[in-house]
Write a structure and sequence with these properties.
Blueprint: H1 6-31, H2 36-47, H3 50-60, H4 68-97, H5 101-127, H6 135-163, H7 172-186, H8 190-206, H9 211-237, H10 240-282, H11 292-295, H12 297-338, H13 345-359
């Protein structure tokens, strides 16, 4: 593995510091949201949709799993930095614009919250562009930011519903149950979905050679995110019937559409990787016979099982290392073929080829002779 570039270290340090600083006031706000038992109950209930949503995004991210540290930073950014910034900016926005109550919910909140969540994606685009390979990566990072943001927000809403404060529900168990059903069971995907539009814009910007697209795609994605968020918030103002209508007519189709886009993006990645690695193989960068064992998810699992059976944990680790290096080379080579190679293209390419060359003699795919160790 190569040495982490200074820009990568700077991004990690800056985001980690911001998360640490923002977590203090957010935790104080959460602790002050009600009696300790109420707050603990709200935290437990708000956690219910988190695990399945996170697992879904990790499942989407199987071709080239993003660094776990970056995924954790994305989620904690949503939970702490975006939430705290939104609380502060919404308060300031209400004073500046004179919009309060319903108008603030429908107008100020969507603009501010999507900006606070989306800023992490902009920083990724600016500082860690190497980690963004397209639309699917944008959706994954955006989704985890939204999951984190919704987790903290749901804690506050659930505590308020139980306490009967801020006009949220009648209070007690009935208020808590109603809020839990609406926010944690029926619409846990709302914030991840809104921010996914910004993520799509960022993903399009990464793969484009047009300067206009690089600027306008993230901005356009943000505008769509704000519009979707505002539509949902506005529906809550006009009563239960309006919420049901927007949920059935707009929210569910939008979620289905985004899921379809994510699946399409993943299938497109397979075709793209096959083409890119085919070209790389013709240039002598890796054996052409290995490509199917790298780009097909089922074949990848079979190869790892085979490696584990013959080489134990060390053999499986070597197979994973080889497949990961080949996939990273495929993404990088695809950007070269599209005419959008990153500035460090040569250094990264040499690193991946070196990793492939170092590991390949120690592995074999099903049907091949296992090397003697």
């Amino acid at each position: 593995m190569g040495v982490k570039p200074p820009r990568n270290r700077a991004f990690t340090i800056v985001v980690s510091v911001l998360v640490a600083l923002a977590s203090i006031p957010v935790l104080i706000i959460v602790a002050a949201s009600g009696a300790p038992t109420h707050t603990v109950l709200a935290v437990i209930l708000a956690s219910v949709p988190v695990v399945p949503l996170v697992l879904f995004y990790l499942w989407l991210d199987r071709y080239e799993p993003e660094p776990r540290l970056l995924l954790a930073l994305a989620m904690t950014w949503g939970a702490f930095v975006a939430c705290f910034a939104a609380i502060v900016l919404e308060g300031v926005g209400g004073v500046v614009t004179g919009l309060h109550d319903n108008a603030a919910i429908a107008i100020v909140a969507p603009v501010v919250e999507e900006a606070c969540k989306g800023f992490f994606l902009v920083m990724l685009l600016w500082w860690r562009r190497d980690e963004l390979d397209g639309v699917l990566d944008g959706i994954v990072y955006a989704g985890l930011i939204g999951v984190g943001f919704a987790f903290t927000e749901n804690i506050l809403y659930l505590a308020a519903a139980y306490n009967g404060t801020d006009g949220v529900g009648p209070g007690g168990v009935s208020g808590l149950a109603g809020t839990f059903v609406v926010r944690c069971l029926l619409s846990p995907f709302a914030h991840p979905m809104f921010t996914a539009f910004t993520g799509i814009g960022v993903g399009l910007a990464v793969g484009s050679r047009s300067r206009w697209v690089r600027w306008l795609a993230p901005l356009g994605g943000y505008c769509v995110a704000v519009l979707a968020h505002a539509t949902w918030n506005a529906s809550t103002i006009f009563g239960f019937g309006s919420v049901v209508l927007v949920y059935l007519v707009l929210m569910l189709p939008a979620v289905g559409g985004l899921a379809a886009v994510a699946m399409w993006a993943r299938r497109s990645e397979r075709r793209m990787l096959a083409l890119a690695l085919g070209d790389a193989a013709r240039r002598g960068l890796l054996p052409a016979t290995d490509i199917g064992w790298v780009v097909d998810l089922g074949a990848r699992r079979s190869a790892r099982a085979y490696a584990r059976r013959w080489g134990g944990p060390a053999g499986e680790h070597a197979m994973r290392e080889y497949q990961q290096a080949a996939i990273e080379l495929g993404f990088l080579h695809s950007r070269f073929l599209r005419g959008t190679p990153p500035p460090n293209f040569v250094a990264r390419g040499q690193e991946y080829v070196a990793r492939i060359g170092a590991v390949r003699p120690r592995i074999a795919f099903p049907g091949q002779v296992v090397p003697t160790r």
